[in-house]
Amino acid sequence: MKQLRKTEWRRGYPIKKNLALCAWGLMALAGFAGILSHPENIPSLTACVLALAGAVLTLPRLLRYYRTTYHSLPALNRRLTKEEQEELLENENFETITELKTESLRWTDIAESAHWLRINGRYIPKELVILGGAEVTGNIMNRDTTPVIFLYATGDVVKIDLGVQVSVQKIQELNAYLWSCYHIFPGQADGKKTEELSGIFREVYTEYLKEKEPEKESGVLADLIEDAGELRQKCIERMPSYLKKVDEKVWWTEKTRKKMEQWEADRENTL
Q: 3-class SS at 164?
């Protein structure tokens, strides 16, 4: 079975799709049946009309959800066919990122391959991500889960729920890891700024695609997943200067610093 298909079944998406379709069908059927069987009963008629209206209003969203090929490949699943998506991950071997599997993240799926990150069952192309990281959340009940938000060089914004609430220290450690290993700029802009950056990156990506014509977008994306240096540089040049500054004191945790120092020492010994 294809790697993406395994992930989809593991996350229960095929079952969720059918359950959503059944729920919608029951709501629509109940609305029609109620209107036809009790037209004189005003309260029942009102409830049935509301149910039918709800079914009509939710139909576009249901169809988008049902037609999505692979939910585990966000953003790219709207740009590529099912076969093209499968091909991108077919030969990727994933290994757990043990440095991050501690404390609140010990049960969370975090792994990487040569070109991809897998976070809680979602696949993220490392080369395409410009800015991103985990965000601090919380409410008075202290039950919020921590999201990780990525902004692609294509202008797509991807949000992944980690499923657990992560401590501030662990969030800093995760974001420091993303910066030190993949040069994903840490820190999240507010919603308006994210929308602005998304528009800028989308414009840069559109211009980049025109330069690559007549090559298909699927081929361009396949190349970018392996090496997006040129596109990344164009996007970074258009970013606000304050987002390009990475405060080592804030984002470079002690654990990550020691890891990189050890790596440098091992390299010097090898040389």
A: coil
